[in-house]
Design brief:
The protein has three helices and seven strands, in the order ββαβαββαββ. With 114 residues, the chain is α+β, with helices and mostly antiparallel strands. The protein is elongated and about 50 Å long.
Length: 114
């Protein structure tokens, strides 16, 4: 199963109702670049710092191997699983309460048995 990182903006208290998706990626390095970009343009802070100072601290922490996602302010990272149609075992595991067939909108056939 593949994971996707969702970079989200939010208020100071990280309330769900204040959040919105900024970007999504399946690559951790790309995620870190996006976090750095949001910090530099002033949309997010890091470890109590803003813009250039925050960015420098972010870079230092990345080099030290620190999990930087926990120190983002006005944003956070959510990880979600991507389950493809080919991963039928993952579908069955996650949605084991579904029984029967679901239509495939591309073929208009009932070919996905759970």
């Amino acid at each position: 199963m593949k994971e996707i990182y969702l970079l989200k903006s939010c208020n100071e208290w990280k309330e769900k109702q204040s959040s919105g998706i900024v970007a999504a990626t399946d690559d951790r390095h790309t995620l870190l670049v996006m976090i750095g970009g949001e910090i530099l343009i002033g949309n997010m802070n890091y470890s109590g710092l803003q813009k250039d100072e925050a960015y420098m601290k972010l870079c230092e922490d990345i080099a030290k191997g620190i999990e930087v996602e926990k120190n983002i302010e006005y944003g956070y990272v959510e990880t979600v699983e991507v389950i493809s149609e080919n991963d039928r075992e993952a579908l069955k595991e996650r949605y084991n309460n579904l029984i029967g067939f679901l239509p495939n909108p591309e073929t208009d056939e009932e070919d996905l048995e759970l």
